[in-house]
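Here is a tokenized protein:
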Amino acid sequence: MHDPRGATRPLNSLGFARPPAETRVVVAMSGGVDSSVVAAQLKAEGYDVIGVTLQLYDHGAALKKKGACCAGQDIHDARRVAERIGIPHYVLDYENRFRESVIEEFADAYLAGATPVPCIRCNERVKFRDLLQTARELDADCMATGHYIRRFDGPEGAELHMAADPDRDQSYFLFSTTQEQLDFLRFPLGGLASKAQTRALAAEHGLIVADKPDSQDICFVPEGNYAAVIEKLRPGAAEPGDIVDLDGNVLGGHRGVIHYTIGQRRGLGIGGLGDPLYVVRLDPDSRQVIVGPRAALATRIVPVAEVNWLGGGDFAAAGEREIMVRIRSTRPPAPAILRPTGPTTAEVELAAAEEGVSPGQACVFYDSGSTRVLGGGWITIRESRR
């Protein structure tokens, strides 16, 4: 970067050509160790830091629940961390926005037989849209989060890259980050070698959350019981129906499509029928759970919609290309061919068939020769072509 007088000024650690004290950064503080360390590190480097925590759902219920982000205890922890490091801290009530933008769609998607990923929608529609706008209103130069992902300045603007620690990489959950958002965001933890390093930094700064366990559940789904949440949000949703095979033969009954996920084998209640059977498809309209052999789960052609493209240039005009894709957060990227079919739609052909590909899940694109995240889309319908 150059100042008006033409002299080159050194960039600070957040990429601005000015002293840290003249750089305002809003840190999204969840109350966990990751975002707390980000706030403490940036404050120690001399930045003008403001901490913001979101209250996303009922505070009373949150206080009774452990192991999820943005609960009552987490808000309390974030406030104590802010006091410890000496930064202003605000709690914003985003409960209505969160319910409308994330929870309602989660319920509808589940009822439609999909397997949604609400954490991605939360990043996309609440944290990186509404909170980011609030950061701008606070005259911040950027917003920092505790996500494990890297941002590099490339020849065509900011690029998104996988974290240095593959075990902590959160790129799957951040594929829908837009280019405009990426220009404003910073991810200070993305280059750390391990979570142990983060906890060591937390202890170094004397933070009360240094040994706090990582959140495991989706914040509004206690103990991972999706069906219970859906029944509460959509009374009567758990209507019974038939379990049928691929030819439509009735094999048994079920207590509601919302209790099943594609790829599920256990708990079907139709044992003793020979080879193991898996949930291959869900049909909410007919209230059918369709089961079949494991081979029927294999999918090579994956249609995706709502594509967010971070690879530069015009997505639809780019044509066919070889990439790596991840269709589940727990699996490493695998080779595939990406074929745009419209401005925001595409067909992904996997080099090797994958099992359990489910509508509602994300399909994230990576550059074949680097750690760069090229964007991604949402899996729409499932085809059984192999």
Remarks:
- Residues 1-6, 59-64, 66-70 have pLDDT under 50 and may be disordered.
- The chain has three domains: 20-223, 238-292, 298-379.
- The helical segments are 33-44, 59-63, 72-85, 95-111, 118-137, 179-184, 195-204, 226-233.
